[in-house]
Fold:
Amino acid sequence: MEFKLNDEQELLRDTIREFTENEIAPIAAELDEQERFPEELIPMLADIGVMGIPIPEEYGGVGMGNLDYVLAVEEISKACASTGVTVSAHTSLCCWPILAFGTEEQKQKYLPELATGQKLGAFGLTEPNAGTDAAMQASTAEDKGDHYLLNGSKIFITNGSYADVYVIFAMTDKSAGNKGISAFILEKGMEGFTFGSKERKMGIRGSATYELVFDNVKVPKENLLGEVGKGFKIAMATLDGGRIGIAAQALGIAQGALDAAAAYVKERIQFGRPISAFQNTQFTLADMRTQVEAARLLVYRAASKKDEGGKYSAEAAMAKLFASEVARDVTCKAVQLFGGYGYTREYPVERMMRDAKITEIYEGTSEVQRMVIAADMGIK
Ligand code: CAA
Structure:
């Protein structure tokens, strides 16, 4: 299978590459250093269509596919994984479930502002006791006739307090296990909806990760997303797509580290010659390139499978599992090629190494991806 980009895709990739080089790369180290969310980039990304690539034009999006979307996340993540996950969580975890499960009214109400970047999206599933065991939701949404009363909290929420629209999961029937979970659309500013602490993280420090707190939030009935009790399936289906976005982020991080290392080894002189002249360097870079290329094929394949329709859980899980492990390994090799300088903040590879680690953890750990892949083979 070969992925030959068409003219439109090449144009999209080149536009985002240029934007990333000019606007994101110069501030990536500062965002990490200061743990600063790059709010100013959102309208700029929106201007080049990045906030709504796979959303149909009728809902304000660009109307392109998932392969186009992963090209964007990959390009951005080459320079800044924090900005990459901001776009990925917004698109895959908030816009997509509204598009896939929302009523026509919900799509008309929320998607145009999300897809044009006037509003930012987030997704709240994880809780202190519901991480990998996502069905163990403690948040509750009590049916009060014309509204649901939402109580509880969510942790580790990407885009946290900077988002405007949230897809949130809570128990509507505690006795029904995962079939008692429902999904809701929340808006910033709803009474009783506040933000807890911001996480201080090892990597993706420019991404805003917050706790969300719900204290008797009155959620209008029309904000129920999908059917009552179908929330767990909505979450799982959403994460299938989210995992392709994170796989693309991991791919971008790995490519960024490979590019940085390939440039550095030509400049760095030791023993009277550039270290690129040593076979160890050549072999290491050859391995890194092969790993990145293999990851790219899996990521593009998963995105294409999603574009084709039908089930793509296993393809998404394989792409995320492989690309995240490649990102971890390739960034580590890049630091090694840089030697002592690679360990300093003078060069980007130590940041890339820290950023890579989260791709093996969020939106399902590597262990969860293996469970999904094995289950798809009928091995449970
Ligand atoms: N699509 C639709 N439905 C699905 C599905 C999918 N991909 N996967 C499972 N389901 C359905 C099953 O068919 C089953 O339905 P029935 O009972 O009707 O048959 C139901 O969901 C339960 O399935 P399982 O028995 O497989 O569920 P489980 O409780 O054993 O959990 C799990 C399986 C894979 C471990 C799952 O809990 C999981 O994916 N956990 C990880 C959660 C995760 O990725 N969290 C990340 C949160 S977001 C984030 O990281 C932050 C961020 O903002 C970036």
